[in-house]
Write a structure and sequence with these properties.
- With 295 residues, the protein is of the alpha/beta class.
- The chain folds into two domains: 143 residues, Rossmann fold (3-Layer(aba) Sandwich); 102 residues, Alpha-Beta Complex (UDP-galactose 4-epimerase, domain 1), CATH 3.90.25.10.
- The strands form four sheets. It has a seven-stranded parallel sheet with strand order 5-4-3-6-7-8-12, sandwiched between helices. A two-stranded antiparallel sheet has the order 1-2. The chain has a two-stranded parallel sheet with strand order 9-11.
- Helix 4 links the parallel strand 6 and strand 7.
- Helix 1 packs across helix 7 and helix 8 crosses helix 12.
- The radius of gyration is 20 Å and the shape is elongated.
- The termini are far apart.
- This is NAD(P)-binding domain-containing protein.
- It comes from Companilactobacillus versmoldensis DSM 14857 = KCTC 3814.
- Pfam families: NAD_binding_10.
Length: 295
């Protein structure tokens, strides 16, 4: 195993930083940012299996194997790790193995990807996150909870439909939702785990917007006028299906519109203040992010 700390000739301490979920989009983006923000530190990526590990192709990153459902594997994976970017999973209960392993291995700091407004119902995800936050608090390990709002990417089906047809139907009415590009969340996570100085909670969100406003951002991204029209939920789903849009992505877009329309979810209180302070720059403009998603 690597040593816990090493020093250069200036006496500066190098850290061992591990990112879980490294085979996913968030984790891979976070590792790329860490190579910029912590160029002298030792970077580690967690994968569940050797097969999964094959997708981690970043130079200068050491892969360790571990599964949240197997505490023994997590104890092995977190040996000599100083700081942990703990990318959450929705499976109830198993995240305690990560916290317990981190405590056993004397991990010195955890940045945990939690959820924005956990005091409201968030598809039931708030229960898992609140429970994990409490486990981390009880462990005594210093932490930052990255309370993320929603990924812009949940509306990928709508962006693809607009690109294909020149139309942007929606049924969420005047409800509002805070949406931000996944890369921005990953950058904030990388900055948080690299610095360890952002305090116990970062509320990471954008200004909430309506789906009509999202349609206008999509129009700007496409660089052409599109029809932005309110419709019924049934017609929305029929339209996307008839255009050959992925049923999985269409279902996700439907789900988040219902969430937005129903309200009482804390989204109205979202602001960019913590997010942009953590990043040190504005979050990505929606139209620019949508261009990236479509490309």
């Amino acid at each position: 195993m690597l040593y816990i700390e090493a020093k250069d000739n200036k006496g500066e301490i190098f850290m061992n930083i591990l990112v879980t979920g490294a085979t996913g989009d968030y984790g891979s983006h976070a590792l790329a940012y860490l190579k910029k923000f912590a160029p002298n530190d030792n970077l580690f990526a967690l994968a569940r299996s050797k097969e999964k590990a094959q997708s981690i192709k970043q130079d200068g990153v050491t892969v360790r194997l571990g599964d949240f459902s197997d505490k023994t594997s997590m104890v092995e994976a977190l040996k000599d790790i100083d700081r942990l970017l703990f990318v959450s999973v929705p499976t109830p209960g198993i995240q305690k193995n990560v916290v317990d392993a981190a405590k056993e291995d004397n991990v010195k700091f955890i940045a945990y990807t939690s959820i924005f407004a956990p005091e409201y119902s968030q598809f039931g995800l708030e229960q898992n996150h609140s429970e994990t936050e409490q486990w981390i608090k009880d462990s005594g390990i210093p932490y930052t909870f990255l309370r993320n709002s929603w990924y812009l990417e949940v509306n990928q089906a709508m962006f693809e439909y607009a690109q294909k047809t020149g139309k942007f139907p929606y049924f969420a009415g005047n409800g509002k939702i805070a949406l931000t590009y996944k890369k921005d969340y990953a950058e904030a996570g990388a900055r948080a785990v690299a610095s360890g100085k952002f305090g116990p909670v970062l509320n990471l969100s954008s200004q909430p917007l309506t789906y009509r406003e999202l349609g206008l951002a999509t129009q700007e991204a496409l660089g052409k006028s599109i029809d932005i029209e309110e419709t019924s939920e049934s017609d929305f789903n029929k339209d996307l299906a008839s255009a050959g849009i992925s049923s999985t992505w269409a279902t996700i877009a439907d789900t988040y519109q219902k969430y937005t329309k129903n309200g009482n979810n804390g989204q109205e209180s979202a602001t960019t203040a913590d997010f942009e302070k953590a990043l040190g720059h504005p979050i990505t403009k929606l139209s620019d992010a949508i261009k990236d998603i479509l490309n």
